[in-house]
Amino acid sequence: MIKSTDKLVFICKKDLLWNWDAFKIVSKYFDNIHLLTWDAYRDNKQEADEELANMEYDYIISFWSEYIILPAQIEAAKKGAINVHPAPPEHPGLGMFSHIFAFPENRMFHGTTVHEVDSKLDSGQIYITKEFPCFGMTPAEVCRCSVMDSLELLETACKLLYKGEKTDALIKYYNPLRKWNPHLYTSKQELKWLSELPAHHIAHEAETYAVTLATNEQFFEHNKNNFDIYFEKVDQNEIVFA
Fold first, then answer.
1. Which of 113, 131, 169, 177 has minimal Cβ neighbours within 10 Å of its Cβ?
2. CB contact at 8 A, 10 and 65
């Protein structure tokens, strides 16, 4: 397969165990990749912004990054900027994992959303969604399914974009019934609902997974076979995305 020579800025959250899996996917389709890893609690946003300001690029793909892409950065992406958001359109923003267990009557499904990045957080044109029923799952099971679906949808997007298409070509996958919830969830709201729950409530465990996944070797050991099998099937063309 001939890879794209378009310049791709790939932004991901620093130290997540499956960043390599995500980077392996984009590397299958793009030769010219600038990797920007980001930690909202430790890194200097101004320095990261300056890093992007000093380069030219065709695409931005943000993957589980929590990096707020500025309007000037969106404008600089000649062929578009997309985000792989690890939640369905009903949950824009943060706190997607603990919310499932804090309000189980409202969250029977979880999922992933690929959407265009615009000037507002998690509000751009929705392109691709995938969901799974999460009722009765543990936090680890929800996260495992979310990771696998996010990797699959990332592959779907790359498989089209490497041909040189602008990101709005992904509209072919859009289900017009899917709309963003106008309510944006914030970390402050998550802290509030967690503070109102008993200390032993499972929602706290889900929030812990969301915070500590980067160094959770037990999670990785439990799931690495799933990742290995996934990529083995991709390499052998047993998994083919539309």
1. 177
2. no
